[in-house]
Design a protein that fits this description.
23% helix, 7-stranded mixed beta sheet, disordered C terminus
């Protein structure tokens, strides 16, 4: 979810039309995350465009420094069949100088169906600064951005409930939304945690003021 959020903040810097809500996928193994974008479509009303997002991380454990070889071994493998409604995000988590035009040329030769974003932290700078570009289907220039600065410009409610209707203008109404269970949010087994760390008990000793 973090990688997707950072990637979509970067996508917003590439185009201010890119404003998406995120929802983790708990129904199946794929996609990793669902992203939804609302668009005012005149007489057709408001359209909700849904994207399936697949995430992969290019880090030091991969035997090689070629990002194209990595993509061919992961999300662009012939065993995968992602379509044009899938957005593939490759997080580069290693020092890797490369030419974005060269990457785009090699990706085009593979002729994938999905939109692809390449994302990574800006080397030698603050941890909140990232660089993003898309090599496919349309090459974009690499854009450097600060996630905190971009988030301030990203005007969307933090949580929403969507419903069917015939409205032609996007609007949001205040409503009661049940609080999110943190165990569900991070896919943690609540019972296992509670058994290991019993509520109200000091696991280091009977007295809360000394170690035994």
């Amino acid at each position: 979810m973090f990688t997707v959020a950072v990637a979509l903040l970067g996508a917003y810097e590439l185009s201010s039309e890119n404003k998406y809500f995120l929802q983790i996928n708990r129904q199946s193994a794929s996609p990793d995350v669902m992203a939804g974008k609302q668009t005012e479509a005149g007489s057709k009303g408001i359209l909700l465009e849904m994207l399936q997002m697949e995430i992969t991380e290019f880090e030091e454990h991969f035997p090689g420094a070629d990002i194209i070889d990595f993509l061919k071994a992961t999300k662009l493998s012939l065993k995968k069949g992602y379509g044009d409604k899938t957005m593939i995000v490759c997080m580069v988590n290693r020092v890797l100088p490369f030419n974005h035009r060269d990457v785009a040329g090699k990706v085009n030769a593979l002729n994938p169906k999905s939109t692809i974003y390449i994302l990574g932290r800006s080397h030698g700078e603050d941890a909140a600064k990232f660089v993003i570009f898309s090599p496919f289907p349309k090459l974009t220039k690499p854009v450097k951005y600060d996630v905190f600065d971009t988030a301030k410009k990203y005007k969307l409610p933090p949580r929403i409930k969507l419903h069917r209707g015939s409205a032609k203008k996007i609007s949001y109404e205040a409503t009661h939304i049940e609080p999110e269970n943190v165990y569900d949010m991070f896919d943690i087994d609540q019972k296992k945690v509670e058994r290991k760390y019993k509520h109200g008990e000091n696991t280091l000793g009977k007295s809360p003021n000394r170690l035994s």
